Amino acid sequence: MPGILVRPDQSFEEAYRLFKKQVDRNLIVTEARARRFYEKPTERRKKEKIAARKKMLKRLYMLRRYESRL
User: Fold this and answer.
1) CA distance 50 to 36
2) Who wins on pLDDT, 2 or 22?
3) Residue 67 Rama label (left phi>0; alpha psi -120 to 50; beta)
4) Residue 4 lies in a domain
5) 29 located within any domain
6) Which of 22, 40, 54, 66 is deepest in the core (most CB within 10 A)?
7) How many domains does the chain have?
8) Is-contact 6 15, C-beta < 8 A?
9) What is the mean pLDDT of residues 51-55?
């Protein structure tokens, strides 16, 4: 769980910026949005499969693009 200790010489804006950075690193907002509604295990697997396919196609595209430059 993110948390920061505010020093006496630290402004609120700086402390808030550090807190936001920690929240982003820990993916708290993303996880909260994902858990907002129940997702069936089959739907989750389907999304993971689609994401894996997109990732593979992107890598393949980048590899072919790189090889064409050689």
Assistant:
1) 21
2) 22
3) alpha
4) no
5) yes
6) 22
7) 2
8) yes
9) 97
Distance, in Å, from the CA atom of 60 to the CA atom of 70, rounded to the nearest integer, reads: 16
pLDDT of residue 70 exceeding 90, the answer is no
Tokens of residue 8, six digits: 């006496």
52 and 32 in a common domain: no
Residue 27: which domain range? 9-38
pLDDT tens sequence across 9-40: 999 999 999 999 999 899 988 899 989 999 99
Residues 6 or more apart in contact with residue 4 via CB below 8 angstroms: 15, 18, 19, 22
Residue 68 and residue 57 share a domain: yes
Q: Is residue 1 part of a domain?
A: no
